[in-house]
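Re: the 275-residue chain
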Amino acid sequence: MEGRFVSIVADLSHLAGQTSLMAPNGYEMSLCHLGFFGALYKRSTPVPATFQVIIGTATILAVEKITADASTPITNTLDIMLRQQVGTELAWVTFTQKATVTEVNFAPDRTVTPGTYSLVLESFDLAGGVFSALKTDTVSVTVESGPQECLVRLSQSKTFETAQPILLTKEYEPTVFFPEILFSGPHTYTDYSCGGTYTQSIAIDSPLVGVTITDQPAGPDLRPSLSIGPQAPAGSSFTLTFTGRYVHAPSATNFVSSFNQRYQLKTVFSTDYLA
């Protein structure tokens, strides 16, 4: 029997050619009663119809697990899981199954093209053995390249002296500390995870004995520094170049900024201080 949603097939081959007083012309099957048994599944917090994610940013959507509605009670224990519908899978979507919710993890990288995608979620019972979809939800996922804050150029985190040479007294063996972060930019926006990498460096134009640059300090104090030792030649001068680089992975864009500072080493009684 063919129906719109259900087809019923019965094998009556063993009755082929048989007759009886009640059926002198053979047997003919008819359907008198048909019953379907099942359950209505629901969740108190619906799955959102739309969701927005940003390339390079990990985002989690918590989806409440379905339960049987009181109008169609069931006695067996459910172990509800979530999966993507076969044939519609998004490679950058994974699941973390928890007690009452399933965390849908979105992690689009720069290989994902910005746009709108359909995420088809199927709830199924892992304890049922059949694993058929008990409820299907579709979420329209918008993937964006990121806010404009993720594409701002680097700028000095503090105001550095670049117009005049900086005089240092050699005999005092000074150590000059610089800010831990030399340049502001996307990496300093706490509201966003822009999916980029920031690096910085300090280089000297002409290495000098007794002049030490520590641009990648290890330890509790992460401030870069310039140290002048007793062997540093008095009267010498040098230039430091400060460089910051931010690589924005989602847009494959590099932001680079730099500035120079000129330093001179003087003795305690140098007449240069009288200028």
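Residues 122 and 136 are 5 Å apart (CA to CA).
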